[in-house]
Amino acid sequence: MLTGAAARLAAVAVLLLAAGAAIGAAIAAAGGAIAGAVLVGLLEAAAYFGGARLALSTLAARPVGEVEQPGLYRLVRELSKAGRLPVPRLYLSPAEQPNAFTVGRAPRTAAVCCTEGLLAALDETELRAVLGHELAHVSGRDILPGTAAAGLATLITFPAGLARFLPSRAPARSAAARSAPGPSGSAVSGDALAPSGSAPARGTAGSGLGLLEATLMLLLGPIAALVIRLTVTPAAEYRADAAGALLSGDPVALASALRKIDAGTAELALAPDGRLTSIGHLMIASPFRAEGFAGLFRTHPPAGERVRRLEALAGYRR
C-alpha cells in the first residue's frame, strides 16, 4: 500500500508523462507523443534508480567505515537495533554547514549522510537524536519519495547546470580576482561545499549564475520546485521529529540539536544553485536562506515550531 508521499510521487510521475506526451505531440504529432512519453519515462527511471547517488554526489559525500567513525557507527547500530531496521550505509560530506540527510529506495538500501560540520557542532546525545530522526524517515518510508523527487528535480534542472560549462565571452579574470568572494556565492562544481558569499571551491572563473544558466533556472526551476513541493510536505518532518525522539528516547536532545543546526545553517547558508536546490528538502534543516529563488524549494517547517513540539513531547509547558 502506498504512503501519502509515495502516492503523491506516483501522481507527479503520471502528470510528467502526460506533459511529455503533450509536448511531444505538439512538436511532432502522434509519433512525438510516444517519444515524449518514453523520454520522460526514462528520466523517471533514472531518478528512481540514481536519485540517491545524485544526492550524495552533490555534497561530495564519501562512504566511511567503522574504523574511521567508530562512534558514529555505534550510535547508528544501537538505533537501528532499537527500531528493528537494517544498519544503513554511512556517508560523510566535507561541508562545514551542520546538516544530515537520508536517501535510498528501501530500508535495506538506505544511506545516512552527515556533514563534517554536524559532527563538529553536536555533542553525542544531540548527534544520537539527529540520527534517530534520520532513521525515522527510513521506518516511515519517506526516503523513496524524497530521493526520487530529488532525482527528478536534478534531472529537470540539468540543462541549467550544463550551461555553466559552455564557453563564456566574458574576459578571463586574474588569479587574484578569481580568488575573491563573489557577490552571490560560488558558481562552479563544488558549490555545495561553499557557503553563500564565499569564494568558489574549485573550478573555473566566475561567481553567481551565468546569464544562460540563470535563464534556464528561471524556466526549469519552478517545475523542479513543483515536483518537490507536491511530493514532500512539512508534516513529514514533524512526524520524523516525533518518531526520532521516541527512538532515541530524548526529545530535548533533538530540540537542542535543531537549535544548533538552525543557527549553523543561517550562518553558513549554501548558495542555492541547480543541483543543490534539488536536494535541500532531504536535509534535516533547509541549507538555504528563506529568501529569493531558494524559497520555491523550501519544504521545512519553522525550526521554532519543531522545537516547541519536541519540548511539549518532553512535557515542557509554555
Would you summarize the structure shown here?
This protein has 318 residues and is mainly alpha-helical.
Structure description:
The chain has 318 residues and is mostly helical. The chain is built from twelve helices and four strands. The protein has helices at 4-58, 70-82, 116-121, 124-139, 143-156, 158-163, 175-179, 211-231, 234-248, 251-267, 274-279, 303-313, and strands at 62-63, 89-93, 100-103, 111-115. The chain has a four-stranded mixed β-sheet with strand order 1-2-4-3, with helices on both faces. A hairpin with a 7-residue loop joins β3 (100-103) and β4 (111-115). α4 crosses α10 (251-267) and α9 (234-248) packs across α10 (251-267). The longest helix is centred in the first third of the chain and has 55 residues, at 4-58. It is globular. The relative contact order is 0.14.
Number of helices: 12
Overall shape: it is globular
Are there runs of 5+ residues with pLDDT below 50, and where?
169-190, 197-208
**What can be said about the biggest beta sheet?**
4 strands, mixed
Biggest sheet strand order reads 1-2-4-3
Return the average pLDDT rounded to an integer: 79
User: Radius of gyration, rounded?
Assistant: 20 Å
Oligomer: single chain
Secondary-structure element pattern, one letter each = HEHEEEHHHHHHHHHH
Structural class call reads mainly alpha
Distance between the termini: 39 Å
Helix content: 55-70%
Tally the beta strands.
Answer: 4
The fraction of residues in strands falls at: 5-15%
SSE layout:
Elements: H1 4-58, E1 62-63, H2 70-82, E2 89-93, E3 100-103, E4 111-115, H3 116-121, H4 124-139, H5 143-156, H6 158-163, H7 175-179, H8 211-231, H9 234-248, H10 251-267, H11 274-279, H12 303-313
Parallel strand pairs: 2-4
Antiparallel strand pairs: 1-2, 3-4
Helix pairs in contact: 1-5, 2-4, 4-9, 4-10, 5-8, 9-10, 9-12, 10-12
